[in-house]
């Protein structure tokens, strides 16, 4: 009976109070300025507290700093086991204040997490960019062409600052003053070469030109002694028609393309028309002296009356 009673011992009222204090530790602001003999009663309560709870209670009750060193040491062991093993084995010196060492470990862990986050984010962005580069895009519109006045997408560029405008004006003034424009070979005007042939042939393919056909001047024929030769003598038709090309038309006129058959037709028609319309010399009628002896009857009387 005694052994069973010992194994089934009823917890004391102090243990019940400590359990209740640990459960509601967040609502405890302070343990008072003078702890007195309550230090051994507070140790089990503080051993179950978190780092934030210990920090808050130490700030409200400075006398707890002597009791919380072991609690901060246990928290450092949970935070970084490798660092705690180095200190425990003697590779590193034991810190003077475990509380400050705990916050150093906390900051070191935060920096490690931040570096890992940056690396993962950079890798993810690189994968997304590579995926977009190899992605096939289908669009029913033309691709926007960048313009100097407007940037990509038709948006106007950012306005230039006063310093940029001043620098641009100064550069333009310096170039105009100290760097005069040089005469290049492109500004030289070459005189056209005038080479004419002795007997120019009419071009087969004329662009922007109109042929002019000139008839030769009529030669005077000698007068014949007989009336038959004088009455029937006429100027012989021109045997040869010389065509001279017209000067090249003005550069502002549009060239007209003509086929070779069309040009030959125009040449033959214009030449025949000009030959037919060429001025002929006036006929000189020479009076026959024998014709005056045989006059009509009426004309002879008129001549006798005169």
UniProtKB/TrEMBL annotation:
Location of region: Disordered: 216-306
Bias type Low complexity, positions: 224-234
Any coiled-coil regions, as ranges: 110-137
A Pfam family hit: Elongin_A
GO biological process, one term: transcription elongation by RNA polymerase II
Sorted UniProt keywords: Coiled coil
The keyword Transit peptide is annotated on this UniProt entry: no
GO cellular component terms given for this protein: elongin complex
Top-level taxonomic group: Eukaryota
Name this protein carries in UniProt: Elongin-A
The organism of origin for this protein: Cylindrobasidium torrendii FP15055 ss-10
């Amino acid at each position: 009976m005694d052994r069973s009673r010992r194994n089934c011992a009823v917890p004391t009222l102090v243990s019940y109070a400590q359990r209740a204090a640990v459960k509601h530790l967040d609502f405890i602001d302070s343990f008072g300025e003078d702890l007195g003999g309550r230090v051994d009663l507070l140790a089990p309560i503080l051993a179950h507290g978190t780092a934030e709870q210990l920090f808050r209670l130490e700030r409200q009750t400075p006398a707890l700093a002597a009791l919380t060193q072991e609690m901060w040491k246990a928290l450092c062991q949970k935070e970084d086991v490798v660092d705690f093993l180095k200190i425990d084995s003697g590779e590193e010196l034991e810190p003077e204040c475990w509380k400050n060492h705990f916050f150093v470990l906390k900051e070191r862990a935060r920096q490690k997490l931040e570096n890992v986050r940056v690396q993962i984010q950079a890798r993810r962005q690189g994968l997304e960019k590579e995926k977009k580069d190899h992605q096939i895009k289908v669009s029913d519109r033309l691709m926007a062409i960048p313009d100097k006045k407007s940037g990509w997408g038709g948006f106007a560029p950012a306005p230039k600052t006063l310093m940029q405008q001043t620098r641009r004006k100064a550069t333009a003034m310096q170039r105009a003053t100290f760097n005069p424009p040089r005469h290049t070979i492109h500004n030289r005007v070459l005189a056209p070469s005038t080479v004419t042939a002795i007997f120019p042939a009419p071009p087969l393919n004329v662009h922007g030109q109109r042929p002019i056909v000139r008839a030769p001047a009529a030669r005077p024929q000698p007068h014949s002694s007989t009336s038959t030769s004088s009455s029937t003598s006429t100027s012989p038709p021109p045997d040869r028609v010389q065509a001279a090309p017209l000067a090249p038309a003005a550069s502002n006129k549009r060239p007209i393309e003509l086929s070779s058959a069309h040009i030959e037709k125009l040449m033959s028609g214009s030449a025949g028309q000009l030959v037919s319309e060429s001025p002929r010399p006036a006929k000189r009628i020479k009076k026959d002296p024998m014709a005056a002896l045989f006059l009509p009857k009426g004309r002879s009387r008129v001549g006798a009356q005169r």
